[in-house]
Design goal:
1 helix, 173 residues
Length: 173
């Protein structure tokens, strides 16, 4: 019995040692599995970090490119605004000049129209005056005839008066 007890204890110790070995192996396998999982997770995290960094770099590059393009567009827009403002100012100057020219032309046209009207009025007056002069010339011609007739009558009357005086003087004698 002693020997059975001793063997039982040995078998029990051996069974415990086997269980312990089996548990240790199982624990080691679990630790290896956990280590591999940790390594895979670390690699996954590192890959994700690299991908995120690459994406961030790509986005930063795109943002820099966009900012450069935006700055170029803003500069071009500012230049266009300045060019348009200069053109607007030049157009305003030309418009003011044209408005001045239009006012001057309108004034000249009004003067010319006034001058033309004045010329027509003057021509009408000249025509009326010419008609009056012609009429007056006719009247003057008649008057000259009348004056010549009167002069002739006066001469005749003077002659008659002279003759009458002579006769009167002779009668006094």
């Amino acid at each position: 019995m002693k020997s059975i007890k001793a063997h039982a204890w040995q078998l029990l110790a051996l069974a415990l040692a086997a269980a312990l070995l089996w548990q240790t192996l199982r624990l080691a396998a679990a630790e290896v599995t956990e280590a591999r999982a940790q390594q895979a997770l670390s690699q996954y995290i590192a890959t994700q970090a690299q991908a995120a960094q690459a994406e961030t770099t790509k986005k930063a590059g795109a943002l820099l490119t966009h900012a450069g393009a935006q700055q170029g567009n803003t500069h071009a827009y500012t230049q266009d605004l300045q060019r348009l403002e200069a053109a607007r100012a030049a157009d305003a100057g030309r418009i003011a000049g044209l408005q001045h020219d239009i006012r001057a032309a309108a004034t000249r046209n009004a003067q010319l129209a006034g001058d033309a009207a004045a010329c027509r009025d003057l021509a009408d007056q000249h025509e009326r005056l010419a008609a009056r002069v012609a009429e007056g010339a006719g009247v003057v011609g008649e008057l000259v005839g009348l004056v010549e007739q009167r002069d002739a009558e006066v001469m005749a009357l003077q002659g008659q008066v002279a003759a009458d005086r002579v006769l009167l003087d002779e009668k006094k004698i």
